[in-house]
Amino acid sequence: MEHASKILSMAPRLLTTYLSCRNNPVVTLDLWRPLLESLPSQPIYTVLPYLLDAGERHILPDHLKPAQNEFDKTIGALFSDAMGSSNTDALPLLLRVIRSSGALKYLNVLGV
How far apart are CA 34 and CA 29, in angstroms? Predict the structure, then answer.
């Protein structure tokens, strides 16, 4: 896992390629979940767009989605940066995460 975090920060495309080509859901999930938990310690504004791109282009397998609380600290950091205007990339990236998550379809159903 430690090596995967380093690869993610240095060569995110290499890691997304590995995840897309490795045909073993158990292995990829065992790598994916800790990677999501490690995002707050990564250069998030560099790394997260690569992961979102890979998800939006359907490069990553469908089973690689955040589950439970793995992504909470990252969302919290993005939200804090967006609200505090400490990083101009925070709000667009946060909105992109929300769009990618499919949460907006639930707001449409609720009439929001």
Answer: 9
Rg, Å, the chain Cα set = 14
Residue-level pLDDT at 112:
45
For 36, which DSSP code? H
Among the listed residues 68, 1, 11, the one whose alpha carbon sits nearest the alpha carbon of residue 38: 1
CB distance 41 to 7 below 8 Å: no
Secondary structure of residue 5 in the 3-state scheme: helix
How far apart are the two ends of the chain, measured CA to CA in Å? 40
Structure tokens at 67: 């589950």
Q: Which residue shows structure tokens 């994916």?
A: 32
pLDDT band at 109 (very low <50, low <70, confident <90, very high): very low
The answer to whether 69 and 24 have CB atoms below 8 angstroms apart is no
pTM across the whole model: 0.77
